[in-house]
Design a protein that fits this description.
seven-stranded mixed beta sheet, Nucleotidyltransferase, domain 5, alpha+beta, 2 domains
């Protein structure tokens, strides 16, 4: 009987289920949209029950599409949108408030009150004080619901990130657990001691009783009895860490970059956490057995979204795929730079006030120059993150890539040129779901070890740098001038 790993990939706007065979090939996939709610400006929420229903739907559909039952499933892996906070009633298993999504700013006032503790928090968690992370969201929910604090202290409420919520529902309430990678994104987890931090819990006034047990990323979590009495959940990781694992970045210095709406670059830094002085986050990449692997993470707020903007707002494209053709119709940008700081700038600047800007346009500037400048801007922003990682005395070996924008060959070649490093595009672009499938298969015995996984992992393309160093330096110097001008214009 052919066996599969079932991966559940629960994202911000959709939930997907994918069946992978032993060679890491996608055999079947199902997807459901998940609605985001915007009750007030800057607030982003979701119906936690709706998320769970979407999981049920896609799991059933993917089995029907492949014409198999759960008997064919070796084990289940779960990967998820990180930092999103859900609190539910222990007795009923029902949420007491909407899930507060990672993007939401509704707990900003809670974070502002702790601004003087930012160094203290950073030294314990590797994170920057921000409503992005889960701790302030939990505090907001407990303050918002009737008798929230009292109920939490009595052990009547449970908290979990999305992975934890799905595990709880899949096991019919028997398992309340998360993995180390997700725990490290809550701002309540000490990444040095690898446990919930009592001082941070006291700081946010969050009762320890509501927190899940923290387990390795590759581990026997429990039987997914909602679907089957035989199949176990064996792999759990936050989406970006799962992609790092799916890209087989198992050695120090290996990195991946996901080109989605934004861009997330993660670098394997090994078994000792390094606190960044360059605006990078330090996070748990994964935990296997007793061994914890750490990563540095950099964020670009606007990546592929700039192409959507060219299409939907500027009407310079009918389809996003056209951007490659138009960019390649000119030899360069004719001296133009575009900084897509629509919602500020991420790593290493962390400038919320910066806004999109264009520089160096002349009467000779054409539509093609403008489109090319927008694509180059994605690569320049990623170089900023890459440079910050290099300045942390990290030795970067190469860059493995995934995400929708990797279809753009011009962008990938320019990224290789501007970084002066190889860009490796895997055969399977579903690296997030694949990563958690690998983690699940390691625990279940589907895979013997990491070496077996590396032996089956393949690449569809490798882009090598072709630009001369002087030209790279000249172009990047122009970008830095554009960034400086953008940040000083208010």
């Amino acid at each position: 009987m052919k066996k599969y790993i079932l991966s559940v990939d629960q994202g911000t706007t959709s939930t997907r289920a994918i069946l992978f065979d032993h060679e890491g090939h996608v055999c079947s996939m199902a997807q459901r949209e998940v609605e985001c709610l915007f009750p007030k400006p800057g607030w982003v929420e979701a119906d936690a029950l709706g998320i769970w229903v979407s999981v049920i739907d896609v799991v059933n559909e993917v089995l029907v599409k492949e014409n198999v039952t759960m008997d064919y499933v070796d084990s289940i892996g779960i990967t998820n949108q990180r930092e999103t906070a859900i609190v539910w009633d222990k007795n009923t298993g029902l949420p007491v408030y909407h899930a507060i999504v990672w993007q939401s700013r509704q707990s900003v006032e809670i974070c502002e009150k702790l601004e003087d503790k930012k160094e203290y928090i950073h030294e314990k968690t590797g994170l920057l004080i921000n409503p992005y992370f889960s701790a302030s969201k939990i505090r907001f929910i407990l303050d918002e619901i009737p008798n929230g604090q009292e109920r939490a202290e009595k052990g009547e409420l449970l908290f979990g990130t999305v992975d934890c919520w799905i595990i709880y529902k899949m096991t019919k309430g028997k398992v309340h657990a998360t993995d180390a990678s997700n725990a490290s994104r809550t701002m309540l987890y000490n990444i040095y001691e690898n446990k919930w931090d009592d001082d941070l819990l006291k700081l946010f006034n969050i009762p320890k009783a509501i927190l899940p047990k923290v387990l390795p990323s590759s581990y026997h979590y429990g039987v997914a009895s909602f679907f089957s009495d035989k199949v176990e959940i064996c792999g759990v990781a936050g989406d970006q860490q799962a992609a790092l694992f799916g890209q087989t970045c198992y050695e120090v210095g290996e990195s991946k970059n996901t080109y989605g709406t934004g861009c997330f670059m993660l670098l394997n830094i090994g078994e000792k956490p390094v606190l960044s002085k360059k605006g990078l986050l330090t996070t748990v990449a994964w935990k296997i057995g007793d061994k914890v692997t750490y990563a540095l993470e950099g964020s670009v707020f606007v990546g592929g979204a700039v192409v959507q903007w060219l299409r939907d707002q500027m009407h310079l494209l009918h389809d996003a795929s056209e951007s490659e053709k138009f960019a390649m119709e000119v030899n360069d940008t004719n001296g133009m730079y575009f900084v897509p700081a629509f919602v500020g700038l991420g790593t290493p600047y962390w400038d919320d006030d910066a806004r999109g800007s264009a520089f160096g346009m002349t009467r000779g500037t054409t539509k093609n120059h403008f489109i090319r400048a927008c694509l180059e801007a994605i690569a320049y922003q990623c170089k900023d993150v890459f440079a910050a990682m290099s300045e942390e005395n990290c030795c970067l070996k190469n860059l493995k890539v995934d995400g929708g924008a990797t279809k753009n060959k011009f962008l990938m070649q320019f990224q290789s040129d501007i970084l002066n490093t190889e860009i490796m595009l895997p055969s399977c672009l579903e690296t997030t779901a694949l990563g958690v499938a690998y983690l699940s298969g390691l625990a279940s015995g589907f895979y013997k070890d990491i070496q077996e996984i590396k032996s089956i992992h393949s690449y569809q393309a490798i882009f090598k740098p072709q630009m001369k160093e002087e030209e790279v330096n000249e172009k990047y110097a122009g970008w830095k001038k554009a960034i400086d001008a953008t940040r000083h214009y208010r």
